[in-house]
Specification:
Radius of gyration of chain A: 22 Å
Number of strands of chain A: 2
Distance between the termini of chain A: 33 Å
Radius of gyration of chain B: 28 Å
Order of helices and strands of chain B: HHEEHHHHEHHHHHHHHHHHHHHHHHHHH
Strand order of the largest sheet of chain B: 2-1-3
Number of domains of chain A: 1
Number of helices of chain A: 21
Largest sheet of chain B: 3 strands, mixed
Oligomer: heterodimer
Shape of chain B: globular
Helix content of chain B: 55-70%
Number of helices of chain B: 26
Largest sheet of chain A: 2 strands, antiparallel
Structural class of chain A: mainly alpha
Number of strands of chain B: 3
């Protein structure tokens, strides 16, 4: 056996090492050993994950100065596992997201009922991350499915993390049932694809299977539906609001960004594999146009009416997922770079918004938009941060969100989908309305019982700082997009 | 030249630091906050000035290229926003004029920073003031260091914003607010043309870069410039590129206060006086001149005829502003109109460049005006800043802007008096001082362009000497306002205010002897300035006569001649005093015609039709949202069912 192929799995292996270290540390240093006081709390996992992130950065650009070429893919297990610089960039982004989630989880995990469970939180979250790694690097449906399940089964445990809270348990139940349903449907779709084409390798399916029949398309439809569940695209989105509302806010933040990013990127890379077959390629585009438009529009329409911030963010995330997969149309290299850039910006902006929502919830227990009335008077810094993040989500010019939307629109436009871009643009205006509702509540509306002033813990502040820097700097430093662009590949 | 990045970063950081952090650490009083904000701003600017001098030294002492020019150095350039084939870049570009501007901006800005310590002492908002000064300096430096016209536009707007903020610094005064709005709106109006010009240029030239004849030394890793690629068809069409350039010139005319877009500059004097010295005399207002100089190769190659627009706009402005300056009584207004007139000199000089003979498109002799304009920009910045800062000292001493409240001040403020006199002599064009050399080159270039223009500008130069000495005598000689001074004796300002005056007047004395033609010239090759004796003698004589005239009329304690002259032509005096009623014309056109006849019907259409449409959209959205909310039942069975239906729907979509 050629052991050098494990080199292409260095990201996964190093993450696994992090998990194992945490696992062992949890055994010896956990709360029940030391009389209820968590010893390793946040610093250890954050430090390890940061180390892992640095390692990924290093592997992306080795010291010799010769950066990897876009298609210098490493593969393992006979092509079941593929790794390109682009997947490393996405993995880096997901890492960053997880890091922010860890930072903002501090206060929540320091609660008495969570102290004993905090080790589990880190390990479960990292396992979902590992699953996403495998999913994105898969070159084969089996590897893909293992990754997918590794990423989604632990999430249901996370959703149920506050298990004595009724809403958390309900959310988890709904999530598990529907996740099972979608996974079985997806698996059925994959088996149909296998039955028709005789291969589970992405690369082989379109190459060796020139004729397309309805059975095969049924398989593809089920597969897309299963992915639509992960991305919470309309009409597979119905679980989203209930689960997001019931889950602990930190977990909601994780759900809204990380699994979506991984799923969107995986979809795009599979589409690029399938593009050899003209018919599949056409059908795929045809389906996604409607999924995208439905997600953006329906997400927006529902978001307008929400009063609960977590539900609100759920629908906002549905709509954002539509923008995220907009560059799938055409599957061009430009599309891939704009999608990854969008993901990076969306990660910082959305997690920044959630970090503010979370810290306010931890301190005051308030979650309704009406509770935010007059927040500016008592907590000006938090309101300002939330405003910046919302502006970025809405795509207002100087912030990063404007540029990411711009690139996504450019990609879809140059792929020829002019009218879709127009619909998306109109929806951007609508989204501006509901994002501004929150800003209005914070700055303009008066309140008799405002949220009292408080100072958030230093980990949350670190998370907020990262997000703030991202929201402001990513827009100004345009060379990041150019950098990503050198690694992207497409149809 | 890698250190040039700090020239931009230091003022930016000091802006962020002073702007965001409350300097009043002790919480006891305002003293500490004053000192800290001022010290941070001034010391960062001092470093910037040192770096600029270092850059200038390294740049101008480097070996010339084989064709006798200095290399254009680009230490930084990166793609900020790719737009298909075009892209917006940000970077730093060093060539003779940008390096020259670095020196001018950092010197004047440092002097103003230092001066403001004394001038703004005890003002409310001291910290805010220094934050804005840093912001302005950063933007202005970015403007001159821009590697392409779009980056220039970005910083151009930033400069406009910081000018707006500083004019409206005394935000409790309605006049200051009105002035800041006026400045912003008028320059923004002009900038709109600039932007359209940039877009036309970018579209047809397939690039936002400036065109250079010389060699460009790109640093390693910097994004390469897109070459200006004007197709034969576009060039042959003959109007596209000239249109773009003239539109850009309108933007420049707005910033540089050219007639008829000059109306904002006199009002901008409502800002603190050091701000007037920095922004509205030395640096920002010459941005328009700088822009023409930047695009100069394009003008010469594609639009040499259109340059005559620049010439005549400049000539008219120079005369108009000089005429108005002769009768103003507010000393800052006199200086403001003098600035307009002097900038117009620079514009005229740039416009008076003719294409070269033979195969060289540009040669140093026929394009003497380019060098003269840049030279005058340099000398003018120094003596006009000195004049404004001197005016600031005077206003500080007598608490008034009106000449009637002054007189006989030479006894009370000797340093201010001496420096003011030197600068007046320089602007009047007395031989030996810097203004003489640069103005002389301009007038020589004008004579070469057309004798009419030459004589015209000579007359304006005479008027310059006249109104400057009217101002000088009105302040320092004439009647002694002893009753007004009795209870408040004017005194010389503190050292932080006099040191900048001395420095600037020293530069004014020696500045003319710099071999400027060796550093900056139209082609980049060294050019020996030789004075045209005929022009030099004529203009010196005329200047001396004009000064003599001013002495005869205004130097005495009583001014019977002046009174008689006002009485002889009361209407002319009144018209000139009211700036020929141009502001009233603007008021009439904007309020009566544009607002009432054009804007309000459009506003009505907007409210009824466009808003109505969006209200309808919003109503529809809300209705739909209400209708479909039942899908979200909270029931897992329903969700799963919808899920399955969705999957089947996808299949249908794929098949058909």
């Amino acid at each position: 056996m050629d052991y050098s192929q494990f080199l292409s799995m260095q990201a996964e292996l190093s993450l696994l090492a992090v998990i194992i270290v945490l696992f062992v540390a949890d055994l010896f240093m956990s709360a029940d050993n030391k009389g209820g006081k968590g010893v390793y709390n946040t610093p250890l996992p954050v430090a390890l994950l940061a180390l892992h992130t640095l390692f990924l950065l290093y592997s992306l650009c080795p010291q010799s100065g010769s950066c990897h070429h876009a298609l210098s893919a490493g593969s393992a297990f006979g092509g079941m596992f593929l790794s390109t610089p682009m997947t490393t960039i996405v993995k880096l982004t997901l890492n960053l997201g997880t890091l922010i989630v860890f930072l903002m989880a501090h206060r929540w995990l320091s609660r008495e009922e969570n102290l004993v469970k905090q080790g589990e939180f880190y390990i479960i979250t990292l396992f979902t991350l590992l699953g996403m790694y495998f999913m994105m690097s898969s070159g084969h449906f089996l590897m893909f499915f293992i990754g997918l399940e590794l990423a989604s089964v632990p999430i249901s445990a996370l959703v149920a993390f506050d298990k004595y809270r009724y809403e958390s348990a309900e959310a988890a139940a709904k999530f598990i049932l529907l996740a099972l349903f979608s996974a079985s449907l997806l698996l059925y779709g994959v088996s149909l694809i296998y039955g028709c084409s005789g291969s589970l390798y992405f690369a082989d399916i379109s190459r060796f299977f020139p004729s397309v029949d309805a059975l095969f398309l049924l398989g593809v439809a089920f597969f897309v539906a299963g992915m639509g569940f992960k991305l919470s695209l309309v009409p597979f989105h119905l679980w989203t609001a209930d689960t997001y509302q019931g889950a602990p806010t930190v977990v909601t933040a994780h759900l809204s960004v990380l699994s979506k990013g991984a799923a969107a990127f995986t979809l795009l890379s599979i589409l690029i594999h399938f593009s050899f077959n003209e018919i599949i390629f056409q059908a795929w585009n045809e389906v996604f146009v409607w999924l995208i438009i439905a997600s953006i529009t329906v997400g927006n329409l529902f978001a307008i009416r929400q009063r609960n911030l977590k539900r609100f963010m759920a629908f906002s995330a549905i709509s954002q997922a539509g923008y995220l997969i907009l560059p799938i149309l055409g599957g061009t290299a430009q599309g891939m770079s704009s999608m990854v850039y969008y993901l990076i910006v969306y990660t910082v902006a959305n997690l920044g918004a959630f970090a503010v929502i979370n810290t306010i919830e931890q301190h005051s227990g308030k979650l309704l938009i009406d509770d935010y009335n007059g927040l500016y008077r008592t907590n000006p810094k938090l309101s300002f941060l939330l405003t910046l993040c919302l502006f970025s989500l809405a795509g207002i010019p100087p912030f990063a969100g404007f540029f990411s939307k711009f690139f996504v629109f450019m990609a879809a436009f140059s792929a020829g989908w002019h009218w879709v871009v127009l619909v998306a643009l109109i929806n951007t205006v609508i989204s501006l309305y509901y994002y501004l509702l929150i800003v209005k509540a914070m700055y303009i509306l008066p309140s008799e019982t405002p949220i009292s002033p408080f100072r958030s813990d230093r980990y949350t502040r670190a998370a907020l700082f990262i997000c703030l820097a991202g929201v402001i700097l990513l827009g100004l430093v345009g060379s990041l997009y150019t950098y990503i662009d050198t690694f992207s590949f497409g149809v | 030249m890698e250190h040039t990045i700090f020239i931009l970063l230091l003022p930016l950081f000091s802006f962020l630091l002073i702007g965001v952090i409350d300097m009043d650490i002790t919480k006891t009083g305002k003293v500490w906050s004053h000192k800290a904000a001022g010290l941070i701003g001034t010391s960062s600017l001092a470093v910037v000035t040192l770096l600029s001098y270092l850059t200038a030294y390294e740049y101008f002492t480097a070996e010339r290229l084989t064709d006798g020019t200095f290399a254009t150095i680009v230490p930084y350039n990166f793609t900020w926003l790719p737009l298909g084939t075009l892209h917006f870049d940000l970077g730093i570009l060093l060539d003779p004029i940008s390096v020259m501007m670095l020196v001018v901006i950092s010197t004047v800005s440092l002097m103003v920073h230092l001066y403001s310590f004394g001038y703004m002492n005890g003002e409310k908002g001291f910290q805010r003031y220094y934050a804005f000064l840093s912001l302005f300096t950063m933007s202005m430096l970015g403007l001159v260091l821009a590697t392409n016209i779009f980056q220039m536009y970005l910083f151009w707007e930033l400069v406009g914003v910081s000018s707006y903020l500083l004019i409206g610094f005394y935000y409790t005064s309605p006049a200051a607010i009105a002035a800041s709005k006026k400045a912003f709106i008028v320059t923004r109006f002009a900038d709109m043309f600039f932007l359209v010009g940039i877009l036309i240029f970018g579209y047809f030239a397939e690039s936002f870069s400036f065109s250079f004849s010389g060699t460009i030394q790109l640093a390693e890793g910097a994004a390469a410039f897109q070459t200006v690629n004007i197709s034969k068809e576009v060039a042959a069409a003959g109007f596209l590129i000239p249109t773009a350039l003239v539109l850009m010139f309108i933007g420049g005319a707005g910033k540089s206060a050219m007639f008829p877009l000059h109306i904002w500059l006199p009002d901008a004097m409502e800002g603190p006086t050091p701000v007037s010295a920095l922004i509205h005399a030395a640096t920002m207002v010459v941005a328009g001149v700088f822009q023409i100089a930047r695009m100069f190769p394009m003008w010469m190659e594609y639009a040499p005829d259109s340059l005559s627009i620049v010439v005549w706009v400049g000539a008219l402005t120079a005369f108009y502003a000089a005429a108005v300056a002769c009768v103003q009584t507010d000393i800052k207004r006199v200086l403001a109109f003098s600035t307009i007139s002097q900038i117009a000199f620079m514009m005229v000089a740039l416009g008076a460049c003719l294409p070269g003979h033979g195969d060289h498109l540009i040669d140093n002799h026929s394009s003497l005006g380019y060098m003269a304009s840049m030279f005058h920009l340099f000398t003018h910045a120094m003596f006009k800043a000195c004049l404004f800062l001197g005016a600031g000292c005077i206003i500080h001493a007598v608490h008034s802007n009106e000449m009637s409240d002054m007189g006989g001040l030479r006894k009370y403020m000797p340093i201010t008096h001496a420096t003011f006199l030197i600068s007046c002599l320089a602007i009047a064009g007395i031989p030996g001082l810097s203004g003489f050399f640069s103005k002389d080159e301009i007038i020589t270039a004008c004579f070469a362009y057309s004798p009419l223009l030459g004589w015209w500008m000579t007359v304006v130069a005479a008027m310059t000497a006249f109104y400057m000495f009217r101002l000088y005598y009105g302040i320092f000689w004439g009647k002694d306002n002893s009753e007004a001074y009795a209870h408040h004796t004017p005194h010389e300002a503190s050292w932080t205010m006099t040191v900048p005056l001395i420095v600037l007047s020293l530069i004014t004395i020696v500045g003319g002897w710099i071999p400027f033609g060796h550093l900056v010239s139209a082609t980049g090759q060294a050019y020996d300035i030789h004075l045209n004796t005929q022009v030099a003698v004529t203009s010196s004589v005329i200047a001396i006569v004009a000064i003599g005239l001013a002495t005869w009329i205004f130097a005495g304690k009583q001014q019977p001649i002046a009174q008689k002259m006002y009485a002889a032509a009361p209407r002319l005096h009144r018209w000139a005093y009211k700036r020929f009623y141009l502001d009233e014309v603007y008021q009439f056109v904007t309020h009566r015609i544009i607002f009432r006849r054009i804007s309000s019907p459009i506003a009505r259409f907007d409210r009824r039709v466009i808003d109505g449409f969006f209200d309808f959209l919003a109503w529809g959205t809300h209705r739909t949202a209400a209708l479909i909310r039942n899908f979200q039942s909270g029931n897992v069975q329903h969700y799963a069912f919808a899920f399955l239906l969705g999957a089947l729907l996808l299949l249908l979509l794929m098949i058909f």
